[in-house]
UniProtKB/TrEMBL annotation:
Stretches assigned to the Dynein heavy chain tail domain: 202-658
GO CC term (a single one): axonemal dynein complex
PANTHER family noted in UniProt: CYTOPLASMIC DYNEIN 2 HEAVY CHAIN 1 (PTHR46532:SF15), MALE FERTILITY FACTOR KL5 (PTHR46532)
Lineage: Eukaryota, Metazoa, Chordata, Craniata, Vertebrata
Pfam families: DHC_N1
Gene (name only): dync2h1
Organism annotation: Scophthalmus maximus
Single biological process term from Gene Ontology: microtubule-based movement
GO molecular-function terms, A-Z: dynein intermediate chain binding; dynein light intermediate chain binding
This protein's name: Dynein heavy chain tail domain-containing protein
Amino acid sequence: MSHGSDDARKTFVLTTTGNFFGIKPSSCLADSPELNNFLDDGNEFVLCVSRLDNDLHLSKKIEASGDSREKVLVFFKLHPTVITEDNLHRSLLVSSMLESPIHTLYQAVRQVFAPVLLKDERWRSEFDPKLADLLSELELGLGSVVRQSGAQPSNKKGWVEEDVLGILTPSDEFQYWADLSEFAEKSSARERAAYFTEQFKFIQKEYGSLDGLSLSDVVDLVEQSRDTLDDVWRQTDFEPYPETRMVRLMDIIGGALGRYVQRKLSGLNIFEEPFVVVRENLRMGVTICEQWVVACDHLTGQVWKRHALHAWKGNKHCPQTLHCLAKRLDEVGTLRMVHEKLLRLLPGGKQQALTSNRVFEPFSGLNPLHYNPYTEPLWRAAVAQFERLMAPSEQEVAGRLKSYIADVQDNPQQLLQVFQKHKELIRRPTISKELKSERETLLARLLDYNRGLKTDFESRCHGSPGDKSGPLIGRNLPEVVNRIVWVRQLIHKVEDSVRIAEALLSDLPGFKGFLHFCDDLLEILRAYEQEQFEDWSRDILSGLVDPKSGISNRVMDLDHVDGRLKIQYSDRLVSLLREVRQLSALGFPIPAKIQQAATTADKFYRQAIVLKQVAHFYNTIDQQMIPSQRPMMLSLALSFEQVIKSKETGGKLQITWDNPKELEVYISKLHSAAEKLSTENRKLRKWHTDFVDKVVTLMNVDLLKHQQRWKDGLQDLRMGFATLEAQKCLWVPHHLQQG
C-alpha cells in the first residue's frame, strides 16, 4: 500500500477534510484501514469524518453522537467502484452534515435540489410530476420536523419552544405555530398556537411574497411587523411568547429585510446611474433597515421592559448585521451626495477632475451592497483612496462656501440654512478645517437662539393658551394637549440645533458648553411636559369620583326641584375622549382608570346621543303640547315618566354607564315610551290644525246661499270627532254629536 503523501486519492480526501475542520490531519490517518477500505474496496460506499478533540476520526458509517451539533464530513461513491486517480472526481461525492441528519437533508432539499428540479426549466421537464409532488411533500415534512424540535436528538420527542435552530426565515416561525395549532397534544397549546398564527396571518402573506413588493410597500411592512410583534408579546390571554423565539424572530425578519434590500438594489449600478435614482433607492433601503433596527431597540429596550405582565428580561436587542448594512448604504449615499454637490459648486473648467469614472474607480470590482466583516477592510481602503482623489476639489469648494457664509453671517436663520444645505460637504475633514471660524460663528448663533427659546418659554409657561403671555394656541386642541404640543415644538427646535451642532461643530472648544446649556434646557422643557400630563391625570382621576365634574359614571339625574331630566354625558366627557386619544398619540401612558372611563364613554357615545334626545323631549314636551290637549295625553305622559323613574331608588336614579346590558334595555324602553308620546302628540296637533282650518272655512260660508255646503262641512267635522272618539283619544260633547 502506498503512503498517503504519494497517493493523490488520499491527499484529496485528507486535504479536503483538514480544510473543512480547520486542523491538519495527523500523518497516521493516511494508512488508516477505514480510508484504505473506502478507496480500494468497491463494496465500501461511505467514509465519515468527524472531529475528536484535536484530531480526526474516520468511520465507514455515520455514528450517532451525544452532541447533536457535531460537524461531520461524508465522502460517498456514485456507484460500486474502486477509487482511482482517473475516476476520483467523477465517482466521488462530498457532503457536510451540520447539527443533525434531518436538518442537513432538509436544507439540501430546500436550498439545492427542490429549486433545481422543480424550478429549472431543463430539469423540470425531465422530472416525473409524481416525483415532483413527493419531493415537495418531503420538503414540507422535513421542515415541520426541523421546526418542531430544531436540532434536538431523536430521543427528545415533542415541541421544544426554546430551540430555534430550525427557524431560518420568518415563514419558518409562522409555520411552526401553524403546525403546533394542529398537532400539539394539549388543547390549550393548540389554542395558543392558533392565536399566534392568526396574529401573524397578515405579515406571513407579505413575507411569503416579499420580492413582489415595492420598497415603499416594505417600509409599511416594517411598521406592521413591529405592531404585530408588539401585540403578540403583550397578549395576556395565553402563556407568553418565549423571549428566545422573539430574539430569533427579530433577527430573521432583519435578515429577510436586509436580503430583500440587497436584491432590490442589486439591479442598480450605484456609482454610474443618475444620482436622483440612486439617492431615492438608497434612501428607501436605509429607511427599511433603520426602522426595523429602531423598532427592535425601542420594543426590547423600553416598551417591553416596562410591560409588567410580560417584561423583557434580557438586554435590548438590535439586529446587528442589518444595522451595519444600513450604515453602509448611508455611507454610499453620502459619497454620491458629496460628489454631486462638489460638481455643482466647482467652476465648469475644474469639473473634469471629478468625472464618475475617475473618482469612483477605487470601487470597481467591489459590490457596496455586500456588507460583511471580510469585505469591510477592502471597502475602507477604497473609501480612503476616493477621499484622496476628492481632496483638491474639496479645497477649491471650501473657498466658495466661505464667501456664501460671509454674505449671511449677520442673519442667524439664513446662516443656519446655508450650513444645513451644505452639511454633507462641511462635514468633510478638508472643508471643516477651512471653515473653522465660520463654524464658531454658527455655534455662537445657535447658543443665542436657544437662549431666546428659554426666555420665550419662561415668559409664556404660566399663562393660558391663546393669551398674550401664554403658550401659542393650536387649532381645536384641548388645553392640556395645546400646552404639550407647544412645549414639544420647543423641544424639537432645541434638538434640531443640537443635531446640526453634533454633526458639524463637535470639535470646537465651545461645543461642550453649548451642549450642557441645551441639555439643561431640554430637561426643563421635558419636566414641564410631564408636569402638564400629571396635573391632567390628577384632575381627571378626582373628577371620576366627583358627581359635579361632568365625568362621573351616572347616566342621568331627575331634578326634583324643577322636574327636569339631566343626562350625565356632558361636553366634558366628549373633550375627555379627545384628550385621551390625543395624549395617547403623543406617547403618554394613560392611567388605567382614565383609560377605562374613556373606553366606556366612547362605547356609550351613541346611547348618550339617544338619551340626550329623550331628555330634551321630556324637558320640552309640555311646550310642544296644545294646552287643551294635555288631559288627553296624560296616560301616555305618566307611562313615559314611569319608565324614567323605574330605576329610582331612595329618590335617585340608580343606572350607570358601567352597566351596559341594563342600560341598553333601559334606553330601549325609554325610546319606545317617548316615541309613543311623541307620535300621539303629533297626531293630535295635526287633528287640531285640521279642525281649526275646517271651522275657519265654515265661518266663511254664507248660510242663506250655501246651506248644503255648510251642512257638509259640519258633517266632516263630526266624522273627525267620531274617528278620534273611536280611537279613545277624546270625549266629544253631546251637542256636537247632534248638531
